[in-house]
Amino acid sequence: MGNLLAFLGVSKEEERLYRALLRHGSSSSASGSEELDPDTRTSSEESTLDRLVALGLATRNTHGAVRPVPPPRAVDALIDGRLHRLREDLEAEATRHSVIDSLFLERWTAPPSPRAGADDHGQMITQLHGIEAVREAIDELTFFARTEDLTTEPTGLLTEESIAVSHPINMRLLRRGVRMRMIMGSAITQDDTTLTYIRDLVSHGAEVRISHHPIERVIIVDRSAALTPIDPADTSVGALLVREPGLVATLVTLYERMWEAAEELPGEDTDMPSDIEREILAMLREADKDETAARRLGVSVRTYRKYLATIMRRLGAANRVEAALLAHEKGWMN
Predict the structure, then answer these.
(1) Topology of domain 6-73, per CATH?
(2) Using one digit for the tens of pLDDT, what is the confidence trace for 27-63?
(3) For a disulfide at 150, which of 120, 131, 220, 313, Cβ 3.0-4.6 Å?
């Protein structure tokens, strides 16, 4: 058979060894197969096996044995790799030819200033009027995002229209390996549509926390640009696009404080405590001081108390004693 996987970036020799692995199960059980036998294979074959691991076609255990990845997962990994490389190539070409800047020229009578940390008019702070202008700015910022995307949603609720707009943007970021963190208002737990969407993002690598306190609306990309609403009470009015380094750094600090004060997104089975919550419940019996309990769990006192407050709220307990009793009744404590 020819090089069937060539279109996915796999050489003929790589495909031959992958097929051999599939036939024999692993390189350690390849009796009668010289290309897989650790005692007889050449340095070239060893290098090819390393390449299979890098491509996602095989795995290597601590003893050095190489095992094949099941074909469906292997092909999926190859497709993801090919798409990732293609996207990088296309983005590099778009940047090299200044495609976006060229298209922006059609909207403004004066040509944009060179990008040097400022927006397209050379300003560090720009007013964007209307939801469409804001969405266009988000599209541009996320297109160039390379490391991190920080967002908040104070209401905790997303409309179906908003989800339809944000879903492809967020998935594009996650596929490219951009770290995504989101802080949602507590109303998310009462809205199945928003909760389902956010959990889907989490399954693809997003990090999400819930805030039970008022939070500010902000989007920060690569810690170099930020969007905040012109009118926090009515985000449809528009937003401020901020590129001034000092202001962006201040917004990042604000975001980190909100993140620290927020709680982990509950799992699908919200009626059962997480492992850390079980450990904290156990500390109610074993430790008489918060400092002692926190030290035993290897967390800060502040973190310990934050988890404890979450547990009490979930149980509807007025104090720690009542929390312990209710947790015992629900089977949360052994």
Answers:
(1) Arc Repressor Mutant, subunit A (1.10.10)
(2) 554 444 445 555 556 778 788 888 898 888 888 877 7
(3) 220
